Amino acid sequence: MRVGEHLLLRGPSGSGKSSLLALLSGLRRPSRGEVWLMGKSLHTLSPGALDAWRAAHLSLMPQRLHLVEGLSLRHNLELPELACGLRPDAARLQGLSERLGLGHLLGRRPDQLSVGQLQRAALARALMRRPRFLLLDEPSSSLDDAATRGLMDLVAEVVQEQGLSLLLSTHDSRVVQGMAHLPGLQSMNLSEPEAPCAG
């Protein structure tokens, strides 16, 4: 997959979708073979080099949101840059927040946000470091129909506006339908459950 291309990874629970995203993001190492992305063999990088490469090129929005409960939404959105030793980009944070309908919520803690707002917050945080690849793992798992439609519309718009490559895993037909209009979207179906492919 190249920058600007998009892949919808479909399949039931246990078919290996999350394992594949973890391999592509370098969070898991393959038990055999190699994972290449943007000319890099990820398993040959040291942990520090892999962290730096990941921070520079991709963001993963996992199934389980990892927002820090004791911090405001603003401070949660600053974490990716602080973790890289960088000064948070206040203008980008404000712009993303407004774009995703979160601008008036920046002072709230995660427990003061709705499930849909939390998903949009996770998307905003994934976009803070200007990734070239955006990986979403079952983004609709806890959303109702209206929130799913809204989130998928936002994802499609942001991906096109920022020229990102999207890799999205789902077993949700609402997501498949909601992303069908994204230009250049390809689909891969992992139809049979399989053993984990990484050690």
Can you give a write-up of this model?
Helix 5 runs parallel beside helix 6 (145-162). The protein has a single domain, classed as P-loop containing nucleotide triphosphate hydrolases (Rossmann fold, 3-Layer(aba) Sandwich), CATH 3.40.50. The protein starts with 5 loop residues before the first strand and ends in a 10-residue tail after the last strand. It has 199 residues and is of the alpha/beta class. Strands 4-5-6-1-7 form a 5-stranded parallel β-sheet, with helices on both faces. Strands 2-3 form a two-stranded antiparallel ribbon. It has helices spanning 17-24, 47-57, 73-83, 90-99, 115-127, 145-162, 173-179, and strands at 6-10, 36-37, 40-41, 58-61, 133-137, 165-170, 185-189.
